[in-house]
Amino acid sequence: MENNGQKRELQINRRNFLKAGAAAAVSMGIMGTIGTKTAVAAEAAVGSSAARNGAQSKLKPTGNYGSASVKLAQYNNEWLGTTKIVGEVKNTSEADVGFSQAARGLYGAKPRVGRNYFVRKTPEGAAQNDTLVLLATEAAVQGKVSPVKLAIPDPEQMSQNIKDFAYYLRADEVGIGRMPEYAWYSHKVTNNPALLKNDLANAVTPVTDRHPYVIVVLVDQHLETMLASTGYDAISIAQSFRGYHASG
């Protein structure tokens, strides 16, 4: 017989867990067009009789988020979630995020050492890490923009193509929206050996690119899976890479 008390507690935890994640994404203003209806990539959907304008992607999965819902979030530079912005929001450096502070030794010796091997300490984590770090190297994503422009479809069709590709990679939700200025790092870590020495002068590089739009890929990591993890095992590491794999 199922324990109704345990089931009710699981539902409450799931709701709060998912709402917190959704609120964090919305507060950054990056779920711009999630929930909107865009054009079907007609050529990709062979035999489709759906109207080209205003049709949902045929690749979009049906998510089960409990009582939480994913809705259109309009861009608003005066609010951060439910908090009103009353002044300038300072851009933070990647060197100040938790993982970087651990690498710099600001949390002590044990976290500093653990920061360097906690992903690769399991066979699954090592396999994922050593593969994914090769997919988007600095040389592949940085540099001058090519003057030769490829022919691309209209913006609506292009956004549909991007979303379809992300859904093909097993994403659960995809949104395209305006990038808030405060969401950029002020500096990016580009020299990990220097970061380990807490040598910030040589560890970071200013972020100068300011692209107007952002693509957000949401991957449901499933509460049931996380409840099976101790927080120190392969599951906790694999969950992050599960998201990386679905977002490129």
Automatic annotation (TrEMBL):
Matches recorded under Pfam families: TAT_signal
InterPro entries tied to this protein: TAT_signal, TAT_signal_bac_arc
Listed name of the protein: Putative reductive dehalogenase subunit A
Organism: bacterium enrichment culture clone WLculture_1813_ORF_3
Gene designation: rdhA
